[in-house]
Design brief:
There is one protein chain. The mean pLDDT is 97. The radius of gyration is 19 Å and the shape is globular. The protein folds into 2 domains: 189 residues, Rossmann fold, CATH 3.40.50.1100; 106 residues, 3-Layer(aba) Sandwich (Rossmann fold). By secondary structure, the protein is of the alpha/beta class. It has 13 helices and 10 strands. The longest helix is centred in the last third of the chain and has 17 residues. Helix 10 links the parallel strand 8 and strand 9. 40% of the residues lie in helices and 15% in strands. The strands form 2 sheets. The protein has a 6-stranded mixed β-sheet with strand order 1-2-10-7-8-9, with helices on both faces. The protein has a 4-stranded parallel β-sheet with strand order 5-4-3-6, with helices on both faces. Bound molecules: 4'-deoxy-4'-aminopyridoxal-5'-phosphate.
Length: 333
């Protein structure tokens, strides 16, 4: 029998998918870890489960307790579903600029959703900062405990990827992996997976894929946390070195624009049947660039973070794209 025991057990062990055109054009194996197939629909199910299990082990969360988190959406969806499966309530703070589809999903699954204006981290009203204040407030009256998941600075997040994503990639490639690249929101995926692969083989190259509007590229390339430009991609980009990023084994860094990533997203729909969100496009573009740097015959792994329908009103909306002078899929135009 091959049975997964409920939602929690269905998280992880996702397939590694060979991306056809990217592999053919580079002469490399470009492999995408199909995180959109997690039961909550994104890579963040892994971090959600890891943070909740860690809190339980430390006695921070008791049955009937409350999970509070600031999130671009996917972590909130993961936490809420993990909470539903384990008997915890969830209060999710999210910037109002995030996609309608993620807000709808959070309401559908019963999260207590609090939308706040998109403000910089330095502002106490910022979604992450506000979620911390709210968690402290709720803790005063909550008998079963409140967990502020704190995905950005809670290293249980990257350890979840260290123990699962990294090991799976090593096993699935029989150790024949030359490079791993992905974008950063919290840094959990890049750091945790990177640490696991480096532990197996220190020659595996770990490459940051940074969207415009993020400060990390300049930090790793020039030692200066400075953002330039903007991106419509949700869930990635970072303005500070989170605890999950501290000492991450990053060998190289690439900056990827929306103009580069979007045509890839559209091609993957039409030519390969893969309907992916924006961060996956940034990741696949980075994998192609890494493959070109390494030359033919190498294996480059990246992450297909979530499903494209989660952004239908933006990424696959010709009016939204045209307003921003971004490429439009020809079959939608
Ligand atoms: N892609 C998407 C769609 C996400 O929601 C996130 C997490 N916010 C990421 C990528 C980045 O993952 P991580 O937080 O592990 O850096």
């Amino acid at each position: 029998m091959d049975i997964r025991d409920g939602f929690l057990d269905a998280i992880g062990n996702t397939p590694l998918i060979r991306l056809k055109r990217a592999s053919e054009e580079t002469g490399c194996a470009i492999l995408g870890k199909a995180e959109f197939l997690n039961p909550g629909g994104s890579v963040k199910d892994r971090a959600a489960l890891a943070m909740v299990r860690d809190a339980e082990a430390k006695g921070l969360l008791k049955p009937g307790g409350v999970i509070v988190e600031g999130t671009a959406g996917n972590t909130g969806i993961g936490l809420c579903l993990v909470g539903n499966a384990l008997g915890y309530r969830t209060v999710i703070v999210m910037p109002e600029t995030q996609s309608q589809e993620k807000k709808d999903m959070l309401r559908l699954i019963g999260a207590d959703l609090r939308l706040v204006p998109a403000l910089p981290y330095a502002n106490p009203g910022n979604y992450v900062r506000y979620s911390e204040t709210l968690a402290a407030e709720l803790a005063k009256s909550e008998p079963n405990g409140v967990l502020w998941a704190n995905q950005f600075d809670n290293t249980a997040n990257r350890m979840g990827h260290f123990h699962t994503t990294g090991q799976e990639i090593w096993r699935q490639t029989d150790g024949k992996v030359d490079a791993f690249t992905c974008a950063v929101g919290t840094g959990g995926t890049l750091a945790g997976t990177g640490m696991a692969l480096k532990e197996k083989n220190r020659d595996v190259k770990i490459v940051l894929a940074d969207p415009m509007g993020s400060a990390l590229y300049n930090h790793y390339a020039h030692g200066e946390l400075k953002a330039e430009g903007t991106s419509i991609t949700e869930g990635i980009g970072q303005g500070r070195i989170t605890k999950n990023l501290l000492d991450a084994p990053i060998d190289d860094q690439l900056r990827i624009t929306d103009e580069e990533a979007l045509p890839l997203i559209f091609n993957l729909v039409k030519e390969e049947g893969l309907v992916l969100g924006g961060s996956s496009g940034i990741n696949v573009m980075a994998a192609i660039k890494v493959a070109r740097m390494l030359g033919p015959g190498h294996t480059v792994v990246t992450v297909l973070c979530d499903y494209g329908t989660r952004y239908q009103s933006k990424l696959f909306n010709p009016a939204f794209l045209r307003e921003r002078d971004l490429p439009v899929p020809d079959w939608l135009g």
